[in-house]
Design brief:
Largest sheet of chain A: 7 strands, mixed
Largest sheet of chain B: 4 strands, mixed
Strand content of chain B: 5-15%
CATH class of the largest domain in chain A: Alpha Beta
Number of strands of chain A: 26
CATH superfamily of the largest domain in chain B: Glutaredoxin
CATH architecture of the largest domain in chain A: 3-Layer(aba) Sandwich
Distance between the termini of chain A: 34 Å
Oligomer: heterodimer
Helix content of chain A: 25-40%
CATH class of the largest domain in chain B: Alpha Beta
Number of domains of chain A: 4
Shape of chain A: globular
Number of helices of chain B: 8
Order of helices and strands of chain B: HHHHHEHHEEEH
Shape of chain B: elongated
Structural class of chain A: alpha/beta
Strand content of chain A: 15-25%
Radius of gyration of chain B: 18 Å
Number of strands of chain B: 4
Helix content of chain B: 40-55%
Distance between the termini of chain B: 39 Å
């Protein structure tokens, strides 16, 4: 530690840190535009010039490392003069169009101009004008306002791993551009809207909608992936205007994926269901809540009483809140059925009794960026958990990443080793790595059977597996890493022999001393497990007497009645058309949906309007078990009600016990109460498979903007290149120096 | 994204030179060869079309925008088709003091072209450039890759008329 002095204040600080970092940590304000704590230092705006004693000229605080005894003055005459002069230069070409600029009121340039700008410009020549670029449906450009801080360029290069923007031309002709009109197609492109300190890059969907000071900010959590990104929801007159990231180092850092940022559009720009609907003589008619709920309750009750509750199945989206899922399973189990599931995309459930309490990553998301070695199995992180891909990308600065998958995946990070297997041979390829590690462990400890390592029967299972060089490379990579990790992606979870993959992955992790875990579907798979929205365990992992049917069984074999919560199985389920057919064939379907164009209108008998995400209170549990609760940011339109209230009343109408909740918070407390009662009895177990099947099949994955009812109804996301399914693979393999200043 | 595009655009001889340049730098830093490769491509193709820039970027494994940045930064790269000969006239301080304005005027009066324009017969393109580091011989201009110094209007007129 060294001691420096800033504005007369003695400060102890880490040697090597920059003046601006130390000042920020101690609440000393230094103006800046190009500096950003998550990006490399560019020092090209010069706004942060400060006086350092002994130096003839002012120095940029963002690029000057501290030294012992340094005496820094951020507000001296020399510093102020320098800062004011820089501001004068910045304003030379900046248009004074704040009244029509979306950034007005929350603009860094506007704010700093107040403190450092002159009243009148001495520049009387013509200002330059830069033509706007059309860079896609998410980001609006007004490039005349650009001050060339290059944050957006550095974001692409360093964080997103796809450099789409650059500084073209030189001198007065320099512009930030994609050069020829190309859209910015990254799945995290929206972050450059936040990064832009001026109004050059603003959000297109919310353009001209509201002023910063007219909006109220609420906190919420994104439902689209298992990261649990924290959101700031900006609301005006009970309408969500836009969504911005809320900083949370444990989840989303300071970023958001485009999905998290723009899916709010589905609240207002889709056909919302405003009143309960029932089908009478084959016609849909609007009705009141009482009639609709009565009809649902009496029909379900009758079926349960006469033919048995096992003929009823309930399916929920993995992005429903924990409270909604808890009440759904409580209704179902109250009726006497364990047929409740959220795993619409799984095809193999044989491992479910060996599972941990909930699907978890086995390593903190924030630690993903620190791994020395990581094996990804069937993971397309960029499309499925975009923010996890950014973490892994950071890990490639020092660590190595390998992948064993069944599809060629275009990552935004470089893989050290990659195996793209045929679907039938996928298991063998993973087994190759497991066998290499097993042989090595047996040699090292001089034992001749895997039983002694805790893996009964593994030797026999792997006896016919061949090891080749790639398996050895991946095995060695994991062994050599101080901090190593095995992560299963959604392709692995959806595989028709997912149990085998999980078993082999656990072997690999254990033998290489790596963490083991998996990414899960939707925003709340973990919450679904804890709430008990699974057929084989009740709330908090409690045992059930008779295991119910899983989602695949229910939709494959059909049930006489279904309850659907926020899901359209025809699109969400891996069975797709077959799932829809099962629902058409069912006698009675009640769907809780937000949308008037829901698939349910093709087969349901009762459709109940419910509140969407951002409209309901609740909680999500992310893949690290981070339990985040939130309140409603806006109220639902029409007669739509939060789903937990609907399920509560349904419980009352069915005369089920203990359905007297007053708030979503009450429900959450009940789930948490159960957690402490039975929570840690569930331990993952080892079970060896009998053989390695060779009929592997990996379902075609859902594309990035089709994953749930909300993204499917977000017009701007659908209009992007990725939404249209024409993603141009214009990304070259990235230089290993891509994270270093000056790298590409 | 294909490394195969550049060899389709350029001759084998040029590609040999391209690979020689790339070999001068560490394998992981191919981008260091971007200026020589763009120069070679321009020498053969006359100018750098978007297609060429994309191909060079792909061949060097850099993002497309990185090639645009370099090509748009240096005045010796031409992004538009040019005439048969490119005349780069210096109008920086030394040359200006030594009479480059009259030279520029000659192009307008006699050939009817201003900087950035090409003669109707497609023979000559005039470019106005900053200092070419030949102030000792001001005023000067460059025809393709040849410097011509100590110019007068007559001397230059003769020189330009000789170009075919």
């Amino acid at each position: 530690m060294v001691t420096i002095e800033i504005n007369g204040q003695q400060i102890e600080a880490e040697p090597g840190s920059m003046i601006i970092e130390v000042a920020d940590a101690h609440g000393i304000t230094i103006p800046r535009f190009c500096y950003h704590k998550k990006l490399s230092v560019a020092a090209n705006c010069r706004m942060c010039l400060v006086e350092v004693e002994g130096m003839r000229k002012p120095l940029p605080a963002c690029a000057t490392p501290i030294a012992d005894g340094m005496n820094i003055k951020t507000g001296s005459n020399m510093a102020k003069d320098a800062q004011k002069s820089v501001m004068e230069f910045l304003l030379i070409n900046h248009p004074l169009d704040c009244p029509i600029c979306d950034q007005g009121g929350e603009c860094e340039l506007q704010d700093l101009a107040l403190g450092y700008g002159r009243d009148v410009s001495r520049f009387s020549e013509d200002k330059r004008v830069v033509a706007d670029k059309d860079i896609g449906p998410l980001i609006e450009t007004e490039m005349t306002r650009c001050i060339h801080c290059t944050r957006c360029v550095r974001f692409g290069r360093e964080i997103a791993g796809i450099r789409e923007m650059g500084a073209v031309g030189r001198g007065e002709h320099m512009q930030i551009s994609t050069f020829i009109e190309k859209s910015v197609d990254s799945e995290v492109s929206g972050n450059i809207i936040d990064l832009c300190p001026v109004g050059a890059l603003t959000a297109k969907p919310s353009r001209y909608q509201a002023r910063a000071w007219e909006m109220t900010q609420y906190d919420s959590v994104s439902p689209h992936d298992c990261i649990g990104s924290n959101l700031h929801v900006h609301v005006r007159r009970n309408q969500v205007i836009r969504v911005a990231p809320k900083e949370n180092e444990a989840a989303n850092e300071v970023w958001l994926s485009d999905r998290d940022r723009f899916s709010y559009e589905s609240l207002t720009k889709s056909k919302r269901l405003l009143a309960p609907m029932i089908k009478q003589n084959g016609e849909w008619v609007e009705t009141d809540w009482e009639t609709a709920l009565e009809r649902a309750a009496s029909k379900l009750n009758m079926l349960a009483q006469t033919d048995g509750a096992e003929h009823i199945g309930a399916l929920t989206s993995p992005s429903a809140t924990t409270e909604e899922m808890y009440l759904l399973q409580k209704v179902m189990r109250g009726l006497g059925s364990n047929n409740v599931d959220h795993r619409l995309r799984n095809t193999d459930f044989s491992w479910q009794h060996n599972e941990a309490l909930y699907p978890e990553l086995g390593i903190e998301l924030s630690e993903l960026e620190e791994v020395d070695a990581c094996l990804l199995i069937g993971a397309n992180l960029r499309k499925q958990q975009p923010l996890a891909a950014l973490r892994i990308r950071k890990a490639t600065r020092h660590g190595s990443i390998a992948s064993i998958g069944v599809r060629k995946i275009y990552n935004n990070f470089r893989l050290k080793h990659e195996i793209v297997a045929e679907q039938e041979q996928w298991l063998e390829q993973i087994a190759g790595v497991a066998k290499y590690l097993l042989n090595k462990a047996e040699q090292a400890e001089d034992i001749d059977t895997s039983d002694n390592l805790g893996f009964e029967g593994l030797d026999a299972l792997l006896s016919s597996v061949n090891i080749d060089q790639k398996h050895a490379d991946i095995g060695e990579m994991l062994l050599n890493g101080d901090k190593s990790s095995v992560v299963l992606g959604l392709h692995a979870v959806e595989f028709n022999h997912a149990a085998h993959i999980r078993m082999l992955a656990k072997v690999i992790a254990k033998l290489s001393d790596s963490s083991y875990g998996l990414m899960s579907h939707g925003g709340n798979s973990a919450g679904a497990y804890l709430a008990g929205a699974i057929p084989h365990r009740a709330t908090a992992g409690a045992d059930v007497q008779e295991v119910g049917a899983d989602a695949y069984q229910m939709l494959d074999q059909g049930k006489r009645a279904f309850v659907l919560l926020k899901t359209e199985p025809g699109k969400d389920s891996v069975l797709a058309d077959k799932a829809k057919q099962s629902l058409v064939n069912a006698e009675f379907v009640v769907a809780l949906s937000c949308f008037a164009d829901d698939e349910a209108f093709e087969y349901a008998d009762v459709v109940l309007p419910i509140a969407s995400f951002l409209e309901t209170a609740g909680s999500y549990v992310n893949v690290n078990g981070l339990w985040q609760d939130f309140t409603a940011s806006v109220t639902a339109p029409g007669q739509a009600k939060p789903a937990w209230k609907v399920l509560r009343v349904l419980g009352n109408l069915l005369n089920l016990k203990n359905f007297d909740y007053v708030s979503a918070q009450d429900v959450m407390q009940e789930v948490k109460g159960r957690m402490s009662a039975v929570g840690d009895k569930v331990k993952p177990k080892w079970q060896c498979a009998d053989n390695l099947p060779t009929d592997g099949w990996s379902p075609e994955p859902i594309t990035i903007y089709q994953i749930d009812a909300w993204t499917r109804r977000s017009p701007s996301l659908q209009a992007t290149a990725m939404g249209q399914g024409r993603e141009e693979l214009k990304r070259p393999p990235l230089s290993p120096f891509h994270n270093i200043i000056g790298g590409v | 994204m294909s490394k195969k595009q550049l060899p389709k655009l350029l001759s084998e001889t040029t590609m040999t030179k391209v690979n020689e340049w790339i070999a001068k730098y560490p394998a992981s830093r191919k981008r260091a060869a971007i200026i020589p490769v763009l120069t070679l491509a321009q020498d053969e193709l006359g100018h750098l079309a978007n297609e060429t820039l994309d191909a060079v970027a792909d061949y060097l494994e850099v993002p497309h925008i990185a090639a645009y940045e370099v090509a748009s930064f240096y005045s010796m790269f031409r992004l538009e088709p040019t005439g048969k000969h490119v005349v780069s006239l210096c109008t920086n301080v030394s040359c200006m003091l030594a009479g480059s304005e009259q030279l520029k005027q000659w192009f307008k009066d006699e050939l009817g072209i201003e900087p950035g324009q090409t003669t109707a017969d497609g023979n000559i393109t005039l470019k106005e450039v900053e200092c070419l580091a030949a102030c000792g011989g001001a005023p000067m201009l460059e025809v393709d890759k040849q410097y011509h110094e100590h110019l007068t209007v007559d001397k230059m007129a003769h020189l330009i008329r000789e170009l075919t």
